[in-house]
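[Automated response] Your request has been received and processed.

Submitted sequence:
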Amino acid sequence: MGDIFVFDENNPDNLYIPISSNVISASNTSSNDYYQKRCKEEGVKRHPARFPQALPEFFINFCTEVGDIVLDPFAGSNMTGRVAETLDRKWIAIEIEEEYIKGSKFRFESESTAVMATESANIAKVTEKEKTEISDLPLFKK
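Generated structure:
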């Protein structure tokens, strides 16, 4: 439990507000992470509102168990999918913007750093045989 000190110049008494320990404190201030570097290198449009990993991590741990399926209907850069996979969950990502889908694959490259260290983390390198091209997905079949 922490405290916030609020100073009111019109009130001589100090006001302290307790902060619950279950508040998610996460920022998304990274401006040069692996995802952004790879998007720039490949000329892929970066998602403008990327989740900090702590947000999907909290809800995935809170609402699911190992082996469950996590659905993200507005995937964006797919941080939720990456976190779900790291936490040994299956995931389904839906995104209308093809450029964001292209960029989301960078989250799963072996050079991309693990988003968290957990005992159950099972991040394996993807072999050429296992790779799926965007055009192979049913969404883009004509």
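Summary generated for your ticket: The first strand starts at residue 2 and ends at 6. The beta strands are 2-6, 15-19, 69-72, 90-93.
If you did not submit this request, please reply to this message.
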